[in-house]
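Q: Is it fine to ask for two folds in a single conversation?
A: Yes, each is treated on its own. Send the first.
Q: Here.
A: Result:
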Amino acid sequence: MAGEKVGRNAPCPCGSGRKYKHCCLGQATPSLSAQMEATKEALQAALAGKDFDSIEDVQAELDRFMAGFNAAPIPEFHGLSSDQVHRFLYFPFDTPELVTFSDPLPVEPEAPIVTLFSALVEGIGESGVKTTVKGNLPRNLVRQAAMAYLGEEGYREHTRLFGISREDDFYSVHATRLVAQLAGLVRKYRGRFVLTRKCRDTLERKGMAGIYPQLSRSFAEKFNWGYGDGYPELPFIQQSFLFSLYLLNLYGDEERPLSFYEQNYLDAFPALLEEVEPRPYAPAEKTAARCYSLRTFERFAKFFGLASIKKRGLFYDTHPEESETRKTPLLEQVVHFASGTETR
């Protein structure tokens, strides 16, 4: 049937005999053609039997049709329209009719990045702390922050497997320092890391409830999510962070496997697979899904205390279907989706 959505496990329309997800889905051509055909049929139905006195009237009718078409909820977007998703992607912090972010938060946040930033503030202190020759945090401060983050037992276990001799040896501390600088909370001055006036004022007036929004926004907008993870660049995963939070807010009341979110995300944005080069034993879909889980859930949602992850073993050795996640109460304190954008 023209315009019907092709299932991921259905035979590919191109006639190759393979499943759609292993064939043309990565190219997105059949899906795009189906959408165009569906739009064409809907437009023909809308114009059928209507008479127009001028080309301006025709254009006005076309404009009304496209406005309604773009405003209609799309199943793959879980109740959102294409217009709403467009706003999520390109104006996540400037669409108050759809979503708002608390600044400051109504509660003191608990999150890994809050723990690490607090350790940095304490370590840098009033007089600052000298940078290394490479311009990083000194080893003792990195170790102190790692201890605050992991706890004594976790620190012993971590250092038994991986030593901490420099900032780069502990990604979470390194990322926190970089994000703090991007947020204008920490800077280098005459060979030392110092807290900025902005940081001191915010801490004095609002505490971590005021610092958290600055860290989270800088992480979303300025920090490179693909930094050092070994996956393809795929900047769209970062650009679509708000859609991912929307999914987590919608379905995160109960624990669900990470694969649930991977599948729904790739169903919404199948063209992402075009940016991934398939390799032996690592098809594009698997690479994109693993990259999505790592960046969105492990390094963003969990790091900022918005989601918890229950997993077995090390993250890189765990299949997403064996790891479960759910939202934390902090998510609804941080981001507020307008009524009408939370229906399934």
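Q: Second one now.
A: Result:
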Amino acid sequence: MNAHNVVHMPNAQEVEQAKISSRALSKYADADRVQLSLRGSNGETDDMVLSGAVLQLLLDVLAEMSKGNAVSLIPHHQEVSTQEAANLLNVSRPFLVGLLESGKIPFRKVGTHRRVLLTDIQSYKQGIAKDRSEALDELAALSQEEGMGY
């Protein structure tokens, strides 16, 4: 992943500050836009307007940080290596390469290296989740029909 994809593990003070900030901002979660006044420790001040979508993203980041979780922001058009894609899907790299070569996930080659769009990984992951949910629904329906009591 490239240099602007920063992963930061929050320390205890940042976790506490994230909790406070999240509570304050959550009052505005339903707003289509918010105006913020900023005052930095360097004496700088600014006013800005954030859309509701940006506010929701900020709330999501703060919620994760308040739990002590690291957060990484990755643009949707970002390409990842096969190892990074395998990590995102929680599979081995050879298994992922098999998915790529079978055409289940699109990819492109840069020299000898395969690159996969993050959006394609997410689409595949959503498809797997949907298939799994449908299979469980079908199993539950069959169990009901057979009187298995599930």
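Q: Anything structural to flag on that second result?
A: Two points. The mean pLDDT is 88. Residues 118-145 form the longest helix (28 residues).
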